[in-house]
């Protein structure tokens, strides 16, 4: 018999994978769908970034992805809230600067209106040991 939250865990992982694909394809419509209206990101400098600011950054035309992937998902379900811990790796160009980035991240998802929506995320770069 499956654990009661196993289906929710799989749904959240599917949403995480859709989030990745939306980034790779610079698909702002899908990102908008996946992000709650109150979405807030904590950026690498500790600033709070709104949904509108994140979406605008994708419309700038200055980002190109060579490759990106996420894995090592650990999902905790708390009723209609999911907290995801994962690993992210990406290579590409942003605003004319090449990047090769690896990070651990935490994202928070809420199940509402029949779907999972991200309400917040934060990444911490994985540096040399």
Structure summary:
The protein is an alpha+beta fold and 129 residues long. The protein contains three helices and six strands, in the order ααββαββββ.
Would you mind describing this structure in some detail?
- With 129 residues, this protein is α+β, with helices and mostly antiparallel strands.
- The protein has a single domain (6-125), classed as Nuclear Transport Factor 2, Chain: A (Roll).
- Helix content is 27%, strand content 53%.
- It contains 3 helices and 6 strands.
- It has helices at residues 6-24, 28-34, 51-59; strands at 35-42, 48-50, 63-78, 81-94, 97-112, 115-125.
- It has a 6-stranded mixed β-sheet with strand order 2-1-6-5-4-3.
- Strand 4 (81-94) and strand 5 form a beta hairpin.
- Helix 1 (6-24) runs antiparallel to helix 2.
- The longest helix has 19 residues, at 6-24.
- The relative contact order is 0.19.
Structural category: alpha+beta
**What percentage of residues falls in helices of 4 or more residues?**
25-40%
* Strand content bin: over 45%
Query: Uncertain regions: pLDDT < 50 for 5+ in a row?
Result: none
Largest beta sheet: what is the strand line-up? 2-1-6-5-4-3
CATH class: Alpha Beta
Describe the structure using short key phrases.
alpha+beta, 6-stranded mixed sheet, 6 strands
Topology:
Blueprint: H1 6-24, H2 28-34, E1 35-42, E2 48-50, H3 51-59, E3 63-78, E4 81-94, E5 97-112, E6 115-125
